[in-house]
Design goal:
26% of the residues lie in helices and 31% in strands. By secondary structure, it is α+β, with helices and mostly antiparallel strands. It has one domain: Alpha-Beta Complex (Spore Coat Polysaccharide Biosynthesis Protein SpsA, Chain A). Strands 1, 2, 3, 4, 5, 8, 10, 11, 12 and 13 form a 10-stranded mixed sheet that branches. Strands 7-6-9 form a 3-stranded antiparallel sheet.
Length: 213
Amino acid sequence: MNHVCICVPHFGSVALEWVETTYGPLRFLAQPDYAKSFKTSRGILNLDTHRNLITKMALEDKTVTHLLWLDADNIIESPTDVNQALRILLTINIPVISGLYRAKKAKGNYPYAMWVKHSDGVPNHMAALSSWTGNFIKVDAIGFGFVLVKREVFEKIPFPWFVWDKESPSEDFEFCAKIAEAGYEVKVYTDVRLSHGMSGKILTDGQVRVHDM
């Protein structure tokens, strides 16, 4: 049976909607076909340090087969059952698979949190992907808001897995580069969708919603 360690770097307060729809069901509703455990680290250190600490703790349990990275502001959208969303990613059965959500950038600019190498060829210059064909796409970088990674990926890539020692790129971009160097691909399954919380939340269709009716 697969054993997913759900990894949550935690900074500050969280939205009740995230607790009710995403964290709570993942944390407390057992599933018959896969096991779950949890590792969290509260935000008093840099994000790359948190991710490395959580990864170390998760890998100490030799029964863990996957790590699911969940940010504390990513709210499940579709399917509405977050455990089913995780089940779908497990069923796809590839080393690195992310759901779809929007990134939070400058006000009014909310690209999808997936990027491809820019055509100018400049190292680390990424372009946000805004259109695609099908529901299963290869990209060069993703955010780590809802991404399932097989244990073998972390075992193949040397420590430290996450590094954020300059303004850009961030620790998730750096890790995606290491994934590629290790011979793996980064994929996004666009039928698993999440909203990204802020003062309201950004839906995957680009709407900014303050109140749910």
